[in-house]
Amino acid sequence: MKAKINTIKTDMYKVFVLGNADNVQLAKAYFLLAIPLLTVFFAFGHFKY
């Protein structure tokens, strides 16, 4: 579990700080950010329908 957390931290650092990540690291970073963000949008969003 500790190795997975370190991998995620390294991927986030390469994507957002260094900017030299490969496609797999980009996908992991954006999925990890998109899932909680979409959850908040759907939980607190107001729909017009």
Layout of secondary structure:
Layout: H1 2-18, H2 23-44
Helix pairs in contact: 1-2
Could you state the oligomeric state of the chains shown?
single chain
Strand content: under 5%
Structural class: mainly alpha
**Helical percentage:** over 70%
Transmembrane segments: 29-47
Keywords: Membrane, Transmembrane, Transmembrane helix
Description of the molecule:
Keywords: Membrane, Transmembrane, Transmembrane helix. The chain crosses the membrane at residues 29-47. The protein is 80% helix and 0% strand. The chain starts with a helix and ends in a 5-residue tail after the last helix. It contains 2 helices and no strands. The chain has 49 residues and is mainly α. Helix 1 crosses helix 2.
Write out key terms for the chains shown.
49 residues, mainly alpha, 80% helix, transmembrane helix, membrane
Short description:
With 49 residues, the chain is mainly alpha-helical. It is built from two helices and no strands.
